[in-house]
Amino acid sequence: MTDEEALLDYRRSVATLYARVRQPGLDAAEVCQRFRQERDALFRSHPQSALSSQQKADFHGLRYYGYDPAFRFLLPIEPDAATEVLEVELEHDGLLRMRRFGKVHITIAGQVVSLSLFWLLGYGGGVFVPFRDTTNGDTTYGGGRYVLDTIKHADLGQIGDRLVIDFNYAYNPSCAYNSRWICPLAPVENRLPIAIPAGEQAFADH
Question: pTM of the prediction?
Answer without folding.
Answer: 0.93
